Amino acid sequence: MIRRPLNNGWEFTERFDDSFLRFEGDAAPVRLPHTCRELPLHYADERDYQMVCGYRRTLELPAEWSGKRLFLTLDGAAHQATVFVNGKEAASHFCGYTAFTVELTGLVSCGGTNQIAVRLDTRESLDQPPFGHVIDYMTFGGLYREVWLDVAEQAYIADMFVRTPSMEQALVDLAIEGGGPADAVSLSILDAAGKSVFTGTFGAAERLQALSCPVSHPRPWTPDSPGLYTLEAVLMDAGRRVLDVKRTRFGFRQAEFRPDGFFLNGEKLKLRGLNRHQSYPYVGYAMPASIQRHDAQVLKHELQCNAVRTSHYPQSQAFLDACDELGLIVFTEIPGWQHIGGERWKDAACQNTRDMLLQYRNHPSIVLWGVRINESQDDDGFYERTNAIARELDPSRQTSGVRFLWKSSLLEDVYAFNDFSHAGHNGGLLPKSLISPDKGKGYLISEFNGHMYPTKPFDSPAHRLDHALRHATVLDAVYGREDVAGGFGWCMADYYTHGDFGSGDRICYHGVLDMFRNPKLAAAVYASAGDGAAVLAVGSEMDIGDYPAGSIGDNYIFTNADFVRVWRDDKLLGEFRPAGKRWKSLRHPPIPFNDTVGAAIEEGEGWSHKKAEAIKDSLLAIQRFGVKIPLKYVLKTAWRAVRWRTGPKTFTRLHADYINTWGVDAPVYRFEAVKDGRVTAALTKSSNAALRLEVDASRTVLTEGASYDAAAVRIRIVDANGSTAPYAQLPVRFAVSGPLELLGPDAACADGGMCGTYVRTTGAAGTGTLRITTGQTAPLELTFQVRVEDSAHV
Length: 794
Known about the structure:
Elements: E1 2-5, E2 10-13, H1 18-21, E3 28-30, E4 52-61, E5 69-74, E6 77-78, E7 80-85, E8 88-93, E9 100-103, E10 112-121, E11 142-143, E12 147-152, E13 156-166, E14 169-177, E15 182-190, E16 196-203, E17 207-214, E18 229-237, E19 242-250, E20 255-258, E21 261-264, E22 267-268, E23 271-276, H2 289-302, E24 307-310, H3 317-326, E25 329-333, H4 343-360, E26 366-370, H5 380-393, E27 398-403, E28 414-418, H6 432-435, E29 442-447, H7 461-480, E30 486-489, E31 495-496, E32 507-508, H8 523-528, E33 536-538, E34 556-559, E35 563-568, E36 571-576, E37 591-592, H9 600-605, H10 609-625, H11 631-643, H12 648-659, E38 669-675, E39 678-685, E40 692-697, E41 701-704, E42 710-718, E43 731-737, E44 740-743, E45 747-749, E46 754-761, E47 766-773, E48 780-788
Parallel strand pairs: 23-24, 23-30, 24-25, 25-26, 26-27, 27-28, 28-29, 41-48
Antiparallel strand pairs: 1-12, 2-3, 2-4, 4-10, 5-9, 5-12, 6-11, 7-8, 7-10, 13-14, 14-17, 15-16, 15-18, 18-19, 20-21, 21-22, 31-32, 33-34, 34-37, 35-36, 35-38, 38-39, 40-42, 42-46, 43-45, 43-47, 44-46, 47-48
Helix pairs in contact: 2-3, 4-5, 10-11, 10-12
C-alpha cells in the first residue's frame, strides 16, 4: 500500500453551502492541521468555533492507478464530518477524536481531476460523545490532524495486530480484504537496527489469528529502556508477486494491574503521571506531529513522569509514537465527560470504543483502556457493551473507567478513581477499601488536585508554594499505599474551558505548566521525583515584601539531590536535607528551609551554640508566622527570655540585625544541590531589576514533510540570576522573516513573567528568524533552518 499525505492545497469556508460543494466562489487557502477559528489566549468564547464549515480540494490522480483501490483517511475531524467525492456523499463520521477512512474506489477518476469536500459540524449541540450536557474543556473544530491518501491492490492487508503473551513470543492477527489473488503472508520482526529476528510464511486467508512469531531474548519495553521492534507483513500472490506491505511497531512487554499495584514485565512499578489535554493556545487542537511529540518529551524529560493519561479522548498518533519511543506509559480512554446520552449516543460511544482499540492497540505504551465515559454514572448495560468490545479486540490489555463515585459498579479490571479529598492539611488520599467495591482488583488514582486549588503563574508566592506542596502530599500518599497502582495529577498544562468552569478568562489554571508549557513551581514536584535531569527549585523568591508583615512562612526546596547547601551573603547557612514526618514515601521529598540566619548570631554575639540556637529559633518563628505566632513559640520565647536573660529590647535588636534587614541591601541567597558528592545544580535568589529574555525553542531545525512543521517557543523574562521575574507582566512582540510564519498573534503579555509563541514553516526551504522584543529588555533573535522533504504531496 502506498500512503501519500494530503495536507496542502485545501480551501476553507466558515459556512458550508451548495455553492462551496460545487467548488464555486472564493474560499481561504489553508494547510492541515487546521482550526476552524483561532482564539485569543484570554477570554476565548466557545461560540466562536461552533459552526457548520467546509473544506475542499481538487485531487489529481495518475492514470496508472486505474484498477487500484483508493482510500481517504482523516485522522481528526472535529466533530461530525460528511465527505463528498465529486459532489456525491461518500461517508459520514460521528467522532472528532478517532480517525476514519473513506474508500474512493469507483467514486474518482484516475487520469483526471477529482473534487473532495468535507462538511464539518463543530457545534456542541451534536447528539454524540462528548456532547449532550456541559463539558469542562473547549472542544474546538476543524480538520485538526493530518489527512492521507492510500493506494492499494485489490487484495491488501486491512488490519494487523501484534501482542506479546510471553516475553519471547509475538502473536499476530491479520485481516485481509479482497483476498482473491492473495496466497501467502510473510512475517518478519526487525529490531531497532533493522536486523531480522524472526521470519515466517503463512497461508493467506480472510482472517489469520494468533500467528506465532517466537523471538529469543528480545529487548523488553520498559520506561527506562523502551525496546521497540517492527513487524513487517508482506502479502503475496501465488507467483510471489508482492500485493501489499504493512508495518507496525510494537514492544515485548507484559502489563498487569493487580490488587497490590501495577506490574510491568513482572516487576512492580508505581505510576507517576499527569493528565494531558491536546489543547494549545490560539489553535486549540490543530498542531502538527512535532508539537504533539514535544508534549511527550516535556512529560518524560522535564517533568520526569513515567505515565500519562490522555484525558478525555484518544489523542494524536504522533503523541503516542513519542510515548512508545520514550517509555511513557499511557492510559487512554473513549471521548466523553460525565454525560451519557440515549441509545443513538451510546451506539456512537461503542463505535468510538471499537475505533480506539483498532487504531491504537499496537502502541506498547498503552497499558489500559478506558471504556467508561469520564466521571459518568453507572450504566451496566452500556458498559457491558464497551467492555466486551475491548476484550474482543484486545484480550492482552485490561480495562478501566474513571469515576468520582464510591463503590461504583465495577465491570472493568481496574477501579480508576478521581480522588480530590486532599484540601491542604489532611491526608493525601482516601483508602481503597472505602472507595472500591472489589479489593481483588487493581486500583488507580486517575485525577487529584486540579480544581481543588487552581494556580496561576502570577498568583502570590505563598499560593504557588501551597499548590506545589499539595501535589507533593498526594504523590507521597500514592507512593505510600501498596494497593494503589499509581496516580495521575490534574493536570499537565492549563487549558481552555467554558465560562462555567474556568477562571473569569475561561482558562482552567489546573496545570503544573501554563498553556505554553512553561513550568509553575508544582512542576518541580514531579521533576524532583525522578532521577534524571538535576532539579533545584525554591518555594520563595525570598522577597519579604511579598508576604504580610514580611513573614515568609514555611519555605521548601525541591530537588532530586541528596542535600542542598545554602549561603546568605557568602556565609554558609548550612546543609539542608529532607526532614520531618510530613512526607514519608517520596524518594526526594520537599526539603524544609526556614533558617536564614545560620551561625550568624553565635558568631556576631559571641554566645554559646546552645543559646544562639535557642534564640534563633524564636526569631525565625517571627519570620515564619508573623503576628500569628503559635502559642508554643510564644511560651518557648518567654521561657528563653528568662533562661538566657534576653529581654524585649534584645529580641528587637536581634530581629533587626539578623532577620528583618530593612534599610540595608537585600540579602543574596545562593543554593547548591549536591548529589553523590557533586554539585548538580545551583541558583541564586536576590532582589534586582536587571531583566532579560530567556527563550527555549522545541526545535530550531524544521522539516516540511507530510505537513507543515512548527516549533514551540517558550519565553521567560528573568532577572540577573536567571530566576523568572513573576511581576514582569510585559508586552512581548514577535516578528518573523524568511520561510516562517507565526501561529497566533504577533504580541502576547507575559503572565507571571512567562509566555510563548509558535512558528511554522510556509512550504519553502531556507533560513528564518524570530525576533522577540519587549520595552524593558534587550531583543532576542532565534534562527531556524527549514528543510523541505520530497514528501510526494498529491
